[in-house]
Amino acid sequence: QVQWVESGGGLVHTGDSLRLSCTPSGRTFGLYPMGWFRQAPGKERGFVAAISWNGGTTTYADSVKGRFTISRDFAKNTVYLQMSSLKPEDTAVYYCAAATSVHSATVVLTATREYDYWGQGTQVTVSS
Q: Distance between CA 36 and CA 65 in Å, rounded?
């Protein structure tokens, strides 16, 4: 069973940037729609960004649109979340997720129930 591993989180100040990475820990046999979600203390896990398995379609939550960019590097089999102009309200544990049962090249998925594999999460803390 393939696990996805997030990295790149940390403690930053308002206005700083971070890049999160999501990489499978084992061999993968396909490309899947991927997403980033986040969960702040006391809140439900919420959608941040998603990318189709061919990389050609992306979508974002309104709260991060224009500040965050999702991308994927096929050679490295890695999905990134570039975060800029970070705000204290971006503080959360960030999770990447894969939808391994979806085989459409262009679909993007925004609901947690549509993803079947999740990473363990990486903490992002933005201080004011």
A: 13
Enter the tokens of residue 91: 């503080």
Using left for φ > 0, alpha for ψ between -120 and 50, and beta otherwise, residue 100 falls in alpha
What's the rounded Cα separation, in Å, for the pair 32 and 52?
7
Within 8 A by CB and 6+ apart from 70, the residues are: 34, 36, 49, 50, 51, 58, 60, 79, 80, 81, 82
| CA atoms of 3 and 6, how far apart (whole Å) | 10
Q: Which two tokens stand for residue 26?
A: 């084992």
Q: What is the pLDDT of residues 19-43, one digit of tens each?
A: 999 998 876 656 889 999 999 999 9
